[in-house]
C-alpha cells in the first residue's frame, strides 16, 4: 500500500519559494517607502490588519469616528473603494457622500464606503491610490483628521497613528507569511504599531508585549 504524503509537505516545494519571494518584496517595499517623500496632509490614523480576511475593520472605523467626534474632531474616512467599478462613473478620487446624494450607488462607490458614509455622516473618499484619497480628503472644508479603512501595508501613505485589529479566534494562523500562511507582514510588525485591538476573542501571551494601550479592548 502506497503511503500518501501529507498535503502540506507535498506543496512545500511550490509554496516555500513563493513565501521567500513575498518576504523579499515586503522588505524592499518597506525600505523604499520608508525614505520616500510623502505629501503633507492632515493627520492620518490607519486601521489595518496583518492577516488576509476580515477582522472587523469597518465596524471599528465607525466606532473610532464616533470617539473622535465626541473629542471635538472633524474626521474624514478614506478607503480603497472595494466594489466600486472604475470603468463607470467619475474619475477617482470619488466623494462617496456627494455621489450617493440621490440614492445608494454601490457600483460607483462600493458597499462598505457607502455604509461608512451613511453610518458616520462623515466625508468618505475612495481611490485605489490611497495617497490621492488622503490628499483629496485633507482639502475638504473643516476636516482636521483622517481615518484610513485598511492601508497598513500602503507604505507610501504617511501616518500619524497605526491601529492593528486582530481576530481573537483565528489569531495569526500558522504564523507564516503568504502564501504558506495568512500573514501580509511578519508578526514583528506588531512591535512598531501604536495599538492592537483584539476583536471577538481574548488576549493571550502572544500579545503580551503589544496589548498595552487604552484602545486595546475587545470589540464585539
How does this model look, in words?
By secondary structure, the protein is α/β, with parallel strands linked by helices. It has 7 helices and 7 strands, in the order H-H-E-H-E-E-H-H-H-E-H-E-E-E.
Would you count the extended β strands for me? 7
Silhouette: globular
Distance between the termini: 50 Å
* Main sheet overview: 7 strands, mixed
- The ordered H/E elements are HHEHEEHHHEHEEE
Share of helical residues: 25-40%
- The average pLDDT score comes to 82
- The share of residues in extended strands comes to 5-15%
Strand arrangement in the largest pleated sheet: 3-4-2-5-1-6-7
Please state the structural category: alpha/beta
Task: Count helical runs.
Answer: 7
- Uncertain parts: 205-220
Rg calc:
19 Å
Keywords:
single chain; 7-stranded mixed β-sheet; globular; 220 residues; 15% strand
Outline the secondary-structure elements.
Layout: H1 7-10, H2 12-34, E1 44-48, H3 57-70, E2 75-79, E3 94-95, H4 96-99, H5 106-109, H6 111-120, E4 124-126, H7 130-138, E5 145-149, E6 161-167, E7 195-199
Helix pairs in contact: 3-6
Briefly summarize what is shown.
The chain is an alpha/beta fold. It is built from seven helices and seven strands; from the N terminus they run ααβαββαααβαβββ. It has helices at residues 7-10, 12-34, 57-70, 96-99, 106-109, 111-120, 130-138; strands spanning 44-48, 75-79, 94-95, 124-126, 145-149, 161-167, 195-199.
Amino acid at each position: 500500500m502506497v503511503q500518501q504524503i501529507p498535503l502540506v509537505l507535498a506543496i512545500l516545494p511550490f509554496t516555500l519559494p513563493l513565501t521567500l519571494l513575498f518576504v523579499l518584496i515586503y522588505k524592499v517595499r518597506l525600505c523604499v517607502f520608508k525614505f520616500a517623500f510623502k505629501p503633507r496632509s492632515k493627520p492620518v490614523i490607519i486601521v489595518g490588519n496583518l492577516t488576509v480576511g476580515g477582522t472587523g475593520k469597518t465596524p471599528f472605523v465607525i466606532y473610532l469616528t464616533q470617539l473622535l467626534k465626541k473629542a471635538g474632531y472633524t474626521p474624514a474616512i478614506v478607503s480603497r473603494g472595494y466594489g466600486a467599478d472604475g470603468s463607470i462613473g467619475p474619475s477617482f478620487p470619488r466623494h462617496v457622500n456627494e455621489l450617493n446624494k440621490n440614492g445608494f450607488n454601490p457600483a460607483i462607490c462600493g458597499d462598505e464606503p457607502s455604509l461608512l458614509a451613511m453610518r458616520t455622516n462623515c466625508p468618505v473618499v475612495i481611490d485605489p491610490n490611497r495617497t490621492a484619497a488622503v490628499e483629496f480628503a485633507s482639502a475638504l472644508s473643516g476636516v482636521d483628521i483622517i481615518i484610513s479603512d485598511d492601508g497598513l501595508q500602503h507604505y507610501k501613505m504617511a501616518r500619524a497613528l497605526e491601529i492593528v485589529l486582530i481576530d481573537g479566534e483565528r489569531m495569526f494562523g500558522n504564523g507564516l507569511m503568504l502564501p504558506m500562511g495568512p500573514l501580509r507582514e511578519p508578526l514583528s510588525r506588531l512591535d512598531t504599531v501604536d495599538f492592537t485591538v483584539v476583536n471577538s476573542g481574548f488576549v493571550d501571551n502572544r500579545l503580551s508585549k503589544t496589548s498595552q494601550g487604552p484602545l486595546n479592548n475587545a470589540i464585539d
